[in-house]
Amino acid sequence: MLKAENLCAGYGGDDAIREISIEVREGSCVALVGANGAGKSTLVKSLCGLLAPRRGNIFFDNKEITGLPASEIARRGLCLCPEGRRVFGPLTVEENLLLGAYPRLPSFGPFRKAASDELKRIYELFPKLETRRSQQAGSLSGGEQQMLAIGRVLMARPRLMLLDEPSMGLAPVVVKEVFMAIRSLRNSGITILLSEQFARSALAISDNAYIIERGKVVLEGASTDLVKNPAVIEAYLG
What is the pLDDT of residues 160-183, one digit of tens each? Predict the structure, then answer.
């Protein structure tokens, strides 16, 4: 479903990722594993159009999307849940969710009714959000904001979901809850590309993984194989 070939991108005069090639098959969960600063977020931003690649090609559903605006890429179904959550603090939980469905809501009329099926699904996945549906998003805990950020992406009916560092800044017990939700999404058939520094959690729920160091892919393969790899154990699993 998603393929990048020899991708190079960065900021200023330096490439943060160099000659990276990855594939994500439909219905799978693929992990990007690496330490902070390895280039994972740069790769994710390049794939969804927030950062223009300097070299290389990106294909989504067998069509090239290299250089397309992020808005057009999102309309095609490649949707990002960003690092740091980025919820709209002054808006309520439900208003944040409805913004995720904005491109397909009617210009006039009962917006919530048009998105009722998706709202029901999100509230079933994250019951805490339903109890806080009228609460300002900025007053939520970090874990609740992460749930909201994931829910907002799901409202867009993504064909492929990019999750960038969903565990960032969260307590261990909340990380476990978030990853349980990601596993549920994966089991429901949603295709996922997960960027995550906590290798053990990422490898546990993914089918395949790429290990990224200093802007390059240094290892790739089935997650069940990588979790047994001595180099991965030493560097990431302890």
Answer: 999 999 988 888 888 888 898 899
Nearest to 193 by CA among 81, 73, 61: 81
pLDDT for the residue numbered 108: 60
State mean pLDDT over 194-222. Answer: 94
Q: In the chain, which ranges are continuous DSSP H helix?
A: 40-48, 70-75, 93-100, 111-114, 116-125, 127-131, 142-154, 172-187, 199-205, 223-226, 230-232
Q: pLDDT tens digits, residue range 61-101? A: 999 999 899 999 998 999 999 888 889 899 999 999 988 88
Distance CA 112, CA 79 (A): 21
98/67 Cα distance (integer angstroms): 28
Instruction: Report d(CA 142, CA 186) in Å as an integer.
Output: 22
Q: Is 237 exposed, middle or buried (0-12, 13-18, 19+ CB in 10 A)?
A: middle
> Can you tell me which residue has the tokens 């219905």?
27
Q: Please give the structure tokens belonging to residue 19.
A: 């000659």
Domains of the chain are: 2-237 (3.40.50.300)
